[in-house]
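General statements about sequence and structure are easier to judge against a single worked case. When preparing material for the folding task, we compiled for one chain both its residues and its backbone structure tokens. The amino acid sequence and the backbone structure tokens for this protein are reproduced below:
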Amino acid sequence: MTPVIKAFGTDMGFAAANLAMQCYGGHGYIRDNGVEQFVRDGRINMVYEGANGVQAMDLVGRKLGRKGGVAPMALFALLTGWIAENENDEAMKPFVAGVKRATDALQAATMWLAANGLKNPNDAGAGATEYLRLMGITVLAWLWGRMAKVSLSKDDPLHKDKLTCARFWMERMVPECPMLLEKMQAGSATIMELE
């Protein structure tokens, strides 16, 4: 998970800082409020300790297939086990549905990489960034689902907010997963066609 934690976390941090700057409009570009510094700091984090594209290539090129793919299989066991454990809980339905949708896309992407990446390494490289993002969204969906399960039994503002954030993730982030899979499945032919 190291490439995912580093790259997905810093990608999301930069996106959040960039959105914060947008809230200020043109004023966000000046130093008075400090948001422009957060944007610069967030951008450099995407390069420190291995640029995020390199992290994605490491995930796809070295981490997935190591030891016969034991790491992704262990992750899938955790995800599908959690889904099975919670799928009959009516209050958990929106969270289980989100984790299942993301997991299905991640499993399909992993199988696609296994089938196509060895035959054509350019296909693996062309889809590496999308695969890393897909894995990040999926793992965070699972973590939000776990937080939602705890929060459903609590009645305080903190846990109400956690449920809202978990629903946001399932409604606004998980829908990217099928799109990321589709982008990966487009392969590398068009990208590699350019001189």
